[in-house]
Fold this protein.
Amino acid sequence: MKIHNLLFFTIAAFITVTFSFKNITTVWAEGAKKDVDELQEQIEKYEKKLTELGRTKSTLANEIDYMDGQINLTTLRIQSSQSNINKTEEKITELIQDIGDLQIRIDKLRNRAVATVS
């Protein structure tokens, strides 16, 4: 009977230790899995954030390039307008001179006509 009790106690102890170890291992594995899952989730969040920041950086760089292009285009338009203004001023100056010359010719013709009639 002592052997039977000893054998029963040994088997019971073995089962208890095995289930306890299994529970501890399961709890630890679940905790580790949870930690790994949480870490993986955080890693994915940071990767997503870095990707978004990379896109934002690219977008901001593109916006700066676009604005630089707009500035250059506006500068060229201003230069073109200034050139057109200068050409128009030159034409006006030439026309004023031509008008003055025509006025002189008209006056001379008028004086001749008056002299001829008198």
About this structure: DSSP finds one helix and no strands in the chain. The helical segments are 2-117. Residues 33 and 39 are 10 Å apart (CA to CA).
